[in-house]
Amino acid sequence: MRLRGVGRRYRLGGPWVLRGVDADLPEAAVLRVEGTNGSGKSTLLRLLAGIDAPSSGRITGRPRRTAYVPERFPAALPFSAAGYLTHQARARGLRGGAAARAAGEWLERFGAGAYARTPMADLSKGSSQKVAVAQALLAEPRLLVLDEAWTGLDREARDELDRAVAERVADAGTVVYVDHDPRRLADSVHTVLRVADGRVAAAAGAAAADSGAGDSGAAAGAASGPTARVTVTGPPGAALPVGLPGAPRGEPGLDGSVRLTVPAAHSDALLRALLAARPPWHIRTVEPPTAPEADSAEGGHRP
């Protein structure tokens, strides 16, 4: 997806919120948008998602399956939580029972299954936000745009959204997000888009600098929370795929294997990415998540 000379203003002759934006959005990548309040971050996200059209310039290559979570979700809708998600699933191509099943599965994933029959207008802010996130993930979008989507979610739901982001990237999707927490997805960011004075500048994020494994920044990220270890064997002479979810830290073994340490939230997506690689990597062992203190006590190794 490409932006060339893109600008946006909200009335003819009005001030430009963004102007002259040139940017490339790669596949299988996470892009973080940064900027001060009022700098145009949300405007950029709405342009990327196709909610707003550019006032100048062109946006090309937007995936057909694009989903968006706005900063403020309109919760007062004439549906139950499950009814709304089922309606959205049908609008995005799912039919019959598949739409209802997808709605139920996503509500359960975000811990909102008990509110399936609750009218949207009666949901708490946190439960409403879970529905907002679920509606964006229903159709497995190739472009996922998140504007403060973690705000209002409980810890379990925030972790689930992290896992869903990793899944989208493992499936060659692109995720663009804004969040007030600078640590959010920090180890997975491929590109940082900084918005200031109506302009957008791009810089490499941790995942791009790391290129997949072995970087001290990735090791620091893995140590900041529970981690999982995966021991894999690849085709003779093959290097690890670039841009693996969670930017795992690799430790070569004497037998030709590689042990990968990754934040636990990204472990499932990492396994899928390795198995989907061409040629695929062989998964030898998967160790359960451990706390950083345990890693330190053991020196980072297990027998």
From TrEMBL:
SMART domains according to UniProt: AAA (SM00382)
Segments of this protein annotated with the region Disordered: 209-255, 284-303
Gene3D superfamilies recorded: P-loop containing nucleotide triphosphate hydrolases (3.40.50.300)
The keyword ATP-binding belongs to this UniProt entry's keyword annotation: yes
Start-end of Low complexity biased regions: 209-225, 234-250
Superkingdom of the organism of origin: Bacteria
GO molecular function, one term: ATP binding
Annotated signal peptide: none
Sorted UniProt keywords: ATP-binding, Nucleotide-binding, Transport
Keyword Signal: no
Domain ABC transporter: 1-222
PANTHER family on file: ABC TRANSPORTER ATP-BINDING PROTEIN ALBC-RELATED
Protein name, per record: ATP-binding cassette domain-containing protein
